[in-house]
Amino acid sequence: MFCLINFGIHAAIDLVWTNSQTSLFSITTATNLQWHTGYGVRNKFTRGCTNNVTDSIDCQLRKRVCDDSVLRFIKGWLTKCGLVRVPVMLEIAGSQQLNSLRKARSIFLLLRAWQSGPLRGKTWLELEIPGKGYNPLLPDRIRAVRPGCMKHGVRVITNMGAANPVKAARRVCEIANELGFSGLRAAVVLGDDVRNVVVGTPELELIETGMHLEEILPKMASVNAYLGADAILAALHTGAEVIITGRVSDLSLFLAPILYHLNWSYNDYAGLACGTVAGHLLECAGQVTGRYFADPGRKDVSGLARLGFPFADVDQKGVVEIGKVKGSGGRIDERTCAEQLLYEVHDPSCYITPDCVLDVTDVHFETTGQNRVRVVGARARARTETHKVSVGYHDGYIGMGEISYAGINSVARARLAGEVVADRLKMCGFVYENFRTELIGMESLHGKMETQLEPYEVRLRVAGRSAFRRSVVAIGLEVETLYTNGLAGGAGATQVVRDLFAVQSVLLPRQLVNPSVRVGQLT
Question: Regarding beta strands 186-190 and 242-245, do their DSSP bridges make them parallel or antiparallel, or are they unpaired?
Fold first, then answer.
């Protein structure tokens, strides 16, 4: 069996972005600290699994505490596999009583950053941190885990290289030297940045709009292909202690070490299906253990504040079982797994990844124990001849202003306040590509309803999008003006102005995407 153990710590970064077919919305990214070790698959995040691990990454890195119950769980499970091992993560987290890892065939620590949008891994980092371009949380992660990794020979895999994996690798080597561990070998996975290739093919069709790529070329900021597990496999075979990637598929991050340890090939479609469906169920962490599933009174989930993140067991025969640590919050059953299975899947018979085309139409779940579910029936066929490429480009600015009203007639006052702001902006000559006023909690998601009870308090939101920054700045200023020149009882005004980055996609022939691996100390 191959064992994959993931320990996660979350930190949020708020971004606002859009593409040409959407209006205005916000998204939140999260960064997960995850573990991979050898023989079976286990994915478990520290947050929610013990009594002592805090929910805050700052506190986690500062206090470095870990409950012995996790030690007992992992040690007990590995004993069943004929091995007695204690993952080095627990020593890094502060445990003083650890067994030697010399019996372990190989252990991997995966630092996984969520980077499905153009800004998360690429453009945003380049703009906000000039000269770096890698995930800003990487140095803290490495400082926290490097001593234990070096001591026990643990290899690190991370996609936190983002827009500049080479610079990230150099920084990791610098940190290792600072900590007294010189001579670190790092492997960098390159080739996801296909800007030069795409510039030479302006006739490519944008999937979302059907326009030609040349329409957005002047505004283009980043062009990155989703690399697959094969690119990471090549890096694993170098023996490097740290493997850093840019843009790769989230599923591929899970699939690569599974293929590596179980010696499965791209011709083994059963193995690809097994590893890919396991990665899909695990990639969003707590979603499969109930966090995105919970709906009080309808789908109750206990212990959400101490949510246990999932693990999966995968053996050589391709059997996948999803579970969580005993005593942790949340739930895993056939219903939570079914919801996560369909998450972000447009066609269940044709879920296209860089590694295969996954078919989950015959997948079913079998309960094998409390909070433990077996996954059966996934199929895969050969990967496509193209790579999906995300093209990020500057698409103007967004401005927002909000203010709250409470008490009798608060809804009417809020609506009139929104009309006043809209009229004022029009009088000043501002024009917007998109403009909306809405009452949060009443109509911001589904629009106005014919019959609806009026709340005691309501919050007005005014938002606009424009190619001119001055136009969107005016929105927040007018909302703030409502304090003294608006309706009675307004309070809590806020204003935000942000650069807007859009993302559209093209399909690039696979032969035009050429991943490579660079190995060395990179100092």
Answer: parallel
Q: Write the DSSP assignment of 300-333 as a string of letters.
A: --S-GGGBPPEEEEE-TT--EEEEE-TT-BS--S
Q: If you compute the radius of gyration of the chain from its CA atoms, what whole number of angstroms results? A: 25
Residue matched to tokens 């996975």? 189
The pTM of the full predicted model, rounded to 2 decimals, is 0.76
pLDDT by position in tens, the chain (length 523): 544 544 433 322 222 222 333 222 222 222 232 333 222 333 322 233 332 222 332 333 333 323 334 333 333 333 333 222 222 232 222 232 223 233 333 456 667 676 655 434 344 555 455 567 898 889 998 998 888 777 777 788 888 898 899 999 999 999 999 999 888 899 999 999 999 999 999 999 999 999 999 999 999 999 999 999 999 999 999 999 999 999 999 899 888 888 988 899 999 999 999 999 998 998 888 899 999 899 999 999 999 999 987 888 888 888 999 988 888 999 999 999 999 999 999 999 999 999 999 999 999 999 999 999 999 999 999 999 999 999 999 999 999 999 999 999 999 999 999 999 999 999 999 999 999 999 998 988 888 877 778 899 999 999 999 999 999 999 999 999 999 998 999 999 999 999 998 999 999 999 999 999 999 766 5
Amino acid at position 376, single letter: V
| Paired tokens of 479 | 């909302």
Dihedral of CA atoms 494, 499, 502, 503 in degrees, nearest 10, equals -110
Report the phi/psi class of residue 408: left, alpha or beta, with left for phi > 0 and alpha for psi in -120 to 50.
beta
- Rounded to whole angstroms, how far apart are CA atoms 52 and 34? 18
- Chain center to CA of 121: 10
